[in-house]
């Protein structure tokens, strides 16, 4: 039995090494991880990206396209037959149909493969024919990515951090009152444990609806086939003076450790650790609109996210030996179409400032990181209107009730510190400005020229940063 296990393990290792070497030398594969924090529009981003890679008329900043090196791009079945396929066609139909709507969010890991036929240039063009490069887009919930930060925490540390953070959030009032009244040293009672977990889950759902970025453990909101299992039936508690075996605290601690070992680590091993390039989407405008505390929460979460990556440079040899590192990481502020283009540099600057400290650490370790503002699917057009004799740069779009309106959301400061400083200090509201935000719907009756994908903002620049060197 042991010999058979060793033989199987060696066989899998040899097969994996052979596959890695074949990919590196003949048809290289780029695994692009795409994740988004609360309300970032991840599904819309991926749909717009795929559509614009298949029809590249709006991708002039992708150098391989502008230089004429891309002969063709086509969809293929994803290589991992155990993963759901990203429903690109269904999502695109939702965005561009007769009654356009935003597609439903994905709630689990999914995958899609795009294959590029690349024409060589320079002195190689006369020696070799076109080559094939595969792009595997791996879509996974942002809540699952944030769970990676739990791996280095004990149940006691996690409970203390969560209870401290929740004390400032009105959505947590009911759960906090119940948890603080609980004596974790008393014998474990399963109905009581389930009631605490249910209250904690209700808080997480409320926090996500309110726009808070930190909503972990992520599987509490996206349980799948784990719903009702012990690994999703725990909650943070104040630590009692004693924690005997059989106590509520002891059982909660056991389940927390089970969540890490049975849920978080397999995700890291099977999906996250295999990513070559990564884009993290964030609704920065939504956080600004909600207020300073929401913006600080997003800044902290995004710094934690970057810290979970294993940055560094890949080569075919390190991949062959299993020492993969994420080579490039892009943090993108989505919904840039909610602002006039004159404000996009300010939005990008805010994103860059939020990531400065953690980004410097990643670059020192060898990873290339970037920040930009973009829109995977543009829902507005720009317009300048006059108010009291003053021109205002607005965006015009369709609201959920069908009305088409022009919005001036307020002016973002050129200096990000004007927002980040009060956010770090825990201010309750912005003192010198208010920022408006509307929920625009996809535009009606979209007509595209042959060869053009849907309108977007900077998808071509994002892809040039992420995969341009491999094309």
Automatic annotation (TrEMBL):
<dbReference type="InterPro" id="IPR007413">
    <property type="entry name" value="YcjX-like"/>
</dbReference>
<dbReference type="Pfam" id="PF04317">
    <property type="entry name" value="DUF463"/>
</dbReference>
<protein>
    <submittedName>
        <fullName>YcjX family protein</fullName>
    </submittedName>
</protein>
